[in-house]
TrEMBL record, chain A:
<feature type="transmembrane region" description="Helical">
    <location>
        <begin position="176"/>
        <end position="197"/>
    </location>
</feature>
<comment type="similarity">
    <text>Belongs to the KdpA family.</text>
</comment>
<comment type="function">
    <text>Part of the high-affinity ATP-driven potassium transport (or Kdp) system, which catalyzes the hydrolysis of ATP coupled with the electrogenic transport of potassium into the cytoplasm. This subunit binds the extracellular potassium ions and delivers the ions to the membrane domain of KdpB through an intramembrane tunnel.</text>
</comment>
<keyword id="KW-0472">Membrane</keyword>
<keyword id="KW-1003">Cell membrane</keyword>
<feature type="transmembrane region" description="Helical">
    <location>
        <begin position="275"/>
        <end position="295"/>
    </location>
</feature>
<keyword id="KW-0630">Potassium</keyword>
<keyword id="KW-0812">Transmembrane</keyword>
<feature type="transmembrane region" description="Helical">
    <location>
        <begin position="137"/>
        <end position="155"/>
    </location>
</feature>
TrEMBL record, chain B:
<keyword id="KW-0472">Membrane</keyword>
<keyword id="KW-0406">Ion transport</keyword>
<keyword id="KW-0813">Transport</keyword>
<keyword id="KW-0547">Nucleotide-binding</keyword>
<protein>
    <submittedName>
        <fullName>Potassium-transporting ATPase KdpC subunit</fullName>
    </submittedName>
</protein>
<keyword id="KW-1133">Transmembrane helix</keyword>
<keyword id="KW-0630">Potassium</keyword>
<keyword id="KW-1003">Cell membrane</keyword>
<keyword id="KW-0067">ATP-binding</keyword>
Length: 540, 176
């Protein structure tokens, strides 16, 4: 098979698998969040936590739930890293240093999974399991919960109730993420992924670190987390041993964000509303795949930082999927990509992670962008904009704008300060414009909760650990609070009837408006920075 | 603030419950299933050919260059316009050409570039073919026999590659 045909076949297999899962999974997720009854296990958890699962919350209480839960998650994860030497399976790797533990705790709770540590040397199995794996589940479930709350804002009217955060969190975990992870962890082992409680294995006289990989690998992809169990992440043969595990992992990291457009359509009782969002996501995703794949296939030394078994196409599809979702797992080193290929991965994040974005975060981000697009359309024709039967007034548009602007603000401030710090020069792995790309990529990754890296940059200094930590924090929680406030004000409204003057949001006109808004917002914000980094490199 | 603290306490209790279920029971359940025959060898990487190991001696096939500093897996993270790194690649090309007794233009890309994991067990069929004469000479096996062993270690659905770890073990077995 020629590399081109082989790549197209892989894309075909992937699309077919996603299409097959789309309706059943999307419909299942809709039912999960609409169900009235609780399972025995769920009831036991609610009793233990002393929570009334049938009491619904206002948007502010829902938001306090998200913030409170994430806050204790960060503290807990920080503490167990600092006390690692007291835990079993630490293999003498010792306590994690404070700056690194701070950064890592925020990183995993915010679903970023940026890794400033080398797992093989720093993390024992206990922290990987009771800390990182747990946050892989619950940070994804938080994203799901916020997405569902926003959708309820559109569906409900004249109410101040958005649902119960704890119930949404627990259901997303028990009824969606956990069963899928368990099944696919076993499938991954059957295909060759490792699952060991030992510290390593001897291969022809060379000690190679092993870990309980499969259980974490499954949720790492499904939850669009992306934190590698081992340093090379999904390039490591124990995490991703062959072409089939590679395709499966790409499928897993795309399947929930893609199927959520169906869930959205089901919940608003008009599937077409979801299809149009999926169409926009797929259009941008496919265009970006062509850019990245094309650039890598014509690179000067395409195999640097790539694994032979995945091929150029298998690497490029993974890179496009991991940056288009907010996953950040890598099966090849983006730092060694061409100017255009690496720039494409960077641009995927700068779109704001909505093509198709992370678990939950993707759908709520694109809905916020849809509000911006409808607002712009409203300005053009001089009408109060509406979306899904809700008026988009001052409050709604302000909340949407805050949500959209948080990421570029923290990203550009962080990257700007870093670029002028004298100490930065020594942290870079490549000279010239590629060095600037390393900085931009790091702050784009943190602010968008992606987690992939131009990995040559050394980010263990206190400046990087703390500034990237804050970017992850603000990049996650400012949009979440704004989205929940938006949901609250939407739910409080009456439903406006559809009239002849209503712009339909299921057709190509709306799709073009939305695509234009996504591309324009990113372009207006980031072209100057991109011109000095990847664009300059691509033109050399 | 009161509401935040109240929610944080509820959050802590939920987190503890979920830590037991997702952080202890879930991975142990997966580990338990992985003890089944048929899965156990994969789980523990028994006799694994997934990672490359450099073997000393001309009788073995050489895997791709590695930028990993074990125990940490990883690659060089060098960009393609990094001129210092271009020199490193040029040096590697010269060394491979000398070792195999061929012109530098015959050295394939995968022979001079570092993989992402630093553990890539595979080389291209071109790089394997380049090494066959030297391996045959040093191991005392015939060129035909070595080619046969290479073919037995060649595979892949979308990309055809040669597994060096399996191949070198086959050389061991053939020369024992």
């Amino acid at each position: 098979m020629s590399p081109l045909v082989a790549g197209l076949v892989q894309v075909g297999v992937l699309v077919a698998a996603l299409a097959a899962a789309y309706r059943p999974l999307g419909d299942h997720m809709a039912r999960v969040f609409e169900a009235k009854s609780h399972s025995k296990l769920e009831k036991a958890v609610y009793r233990f936590a002393r929570i009334d699962p049938d009491g619904e919350q206002k948007w502010s209480t829902y938001a306090y739930g998200v913030l409170g839960f994430s806050f204790v998650g960060i503290v807990f994860l920080y503490v167990i890293q600092r006390l690692q030497s007291l835990l079993p399976f630490d293999f003498g790797r010792g306590n994690v240093p404070s700056g690194m533990a701070f950064n890592t705790a925020i990183s995993f709770v915010t679903n970023t999974n940026w890794q400033s540590y080398v797992p093989e040397a720093v993390m024992g199995h206990a922290v990987q399991m009771i800390g990182l794996t747990v946050q892989n589940f619950v940070s994804a479930a938080v994203g799901l919960a916020v997405a569902v709350a926003l959708i309820r804002g559109f569906v409900r009217h004249q109410t101040d109730r958005l649902g119960n955060f704890w119930v949404d969190l627990v259901r997303g975990t028990f009824r969606i993420l956990l069963p899928l992870s368990f099944v696919f962890a076993i499938v991954l082992i059957a295909l060759g992924v490792t699952m060991s409680l030992k510290s390593g294995v001897d291969v022809d006289g060379q000690a190679i670190v092993n870990a309980p990989v499969a259980s974490q690998e499954a949720i790492k992809e499904l939850g669009t987390n992306g934190g590698g169990v081992l340093n090379a992440n999904s390039a490591h043969p124990f995490e991703n041993p062959n072409e089939w595990t590679n395709l499966l992992e790409i499928f897993l990291l795309l399947v929930i964000p893609v199927a959520l457009t169906r869930t959205f359509g089901q919940l608003v009782k008009q599937n077409k509303q979801g299809y149009v969002l999926l169409g926009v996501m797929a259009t941008i995703w496919t265009a970006m795949l062509a850019v990245i794949w094309g650039a890598e296939a014509s690179g000067l030394r395409p195999w640097e930082g790539k694994e032979l078994r995945f091929g150029i196409a298998g690497s490029a599809i993974f890179a496009n999927a991991t940056t288009g979702t907010s996953t950040g797992a890598v099966n090849s080193l983006h730092d060694s990509y061409t100017g255009l290929g690496g720039g494409g991965a960077l641009l995927n994040m700068l779109f704001g992670e909505m093509t198709p974005g992370g678990v939950g975060t993707g759908i709520y981000s694109i809905l916020v962008m849809a509000i911006i697009a409808m607002f712009l359309a409203g300005l053009m024709v001089g009408r109060t904009p509406e979306y899904l039967g809700k008026k988009l007034g001052r409050k709604e548009v302000t909340a949407a704008a805050v949500s959209i602007l948080a990421m570029p603000t923290v990203l550009l401030i962080g990257a700007g300060i870093t670029a002028i710090l004298p100490s930065t020069q020594g942290a870079l792995n490549n000279p010239g414009s590629h060095g600037l790309s390393e900085i931009l990529y790091a702050y784009a990754s943190a602010s968008n909760n992606n987690g992939s890296a131009f990995g040559g940059i050394t980010v263990t200094s206190d400046w990087f650990q703390s500034s990237l930590g804050l970017c992850m924090l603000f990049g996650r929680f400012i949009p979440i609070v704004a989205v929940l406030a938006l949901a609250g004000s939407l739910a409080a409204q009456k439903k406006v009837p559809v009239t002849a003057g209503t712009l339909p949001t299921t057709g190509p006109l709306f799709a073009s408006l939305l695509t234009g808004a996504i591309v324009l917002v990113a372009a207006l914000t980031f072209v100057p920075a991109l011109a000095l980094g990847p664009i300059a490199e691509a033109l050399q | 603030m009161d509401n935040f603290l109240k929610q944080s306490w509820a959050g802590l209790r939920i987190l503890l419950a979920l830590t037991v279920l997702l952080g202890v029971l879930y991975p142990l359940a997966v580990w338990g299933v992985s003890r089944l025959p048929g899965l156990h060898a994969n789980a523990e990487a028994v006799d694994t050919t997934l990672v490359a190991v450099t073997r000393e001696g001309d009788r073995y096939f050489v895997p791709r260059p590695s930028a990993a500093t074990l125990p940490a897996s990883g690659g060089s993270n060098k960009g393609e316009l990094n001129s210092d790194y271009t020199k490193v690649i040029d040096e590697r090309r010269t060394a491979v050409a000398q070792r195999e007794g061929v012109a530098e233009s015959q050295v394939p890309q995968d022979a001079v570039t570092a993989s992402a994991s630093g553990l890539d067990p595979n080389i291209s069929p071109e790089y394997a073919a380049l090494q066959v004469p030297r391996v045959a000479r040093a191991s005392g096996l015939s060129v035909e026999k070595v080619r046969e062993l290479v073919a037995a270690s060649t595979g892949g659905t979308f990309t055809t590659t040669v597994n060096v770890t399996a191949l070198n073990r086959a050389i061991d077995a053939a020369t024992r």
